[in-house]
Specification:
- By secondary structure, this protein is of the alpha+beta class.
- It contains 1 helix and 4 strands; from the N terminus they run αββββ.
- Strands 1-2-3-4 form a 4-stranded antiparallel beta sheet, with no helix packed on it.
- Strand 3 and strand 4 form a beta hairpin.
- The termini are far apart.
Length: 71
């Protein structure tokens, strides 16, 4: 269940390093993207993209995220 997933994530993602490479914000100030890389040690590394949307409250919310492992 949920607790097992959280335990797995804590054990496996604790050592992952994330690096932000670039950020962009729309001129309308309601959408943004973040591009970056990750390194989990050894051959486990790659890139990621996150898309953010500003909520009516003014807080930024992650609405899409994807990653791709390096070959």
């Amino acid at each position: 269940g949920r607790d097992a997933v959280l335990d797995w994530a804590r054990a496996n993602w604790a050592s992952v390093r994330y690096t932000v490479i670039n950020t962009q914000r729309a001129g309308s100030d309601d959408l943004g993207i973040t591009l970056g890389g990750y390194d989990a040690g050894g051959s486990q590394h790659g890139t990621w993209v996150r898309v953010w949307k500003r909520a009516a409250s003014g807080q930024w919310r992650n609405v899409f995220e994807t990653s791709k492992a390096a070959k």
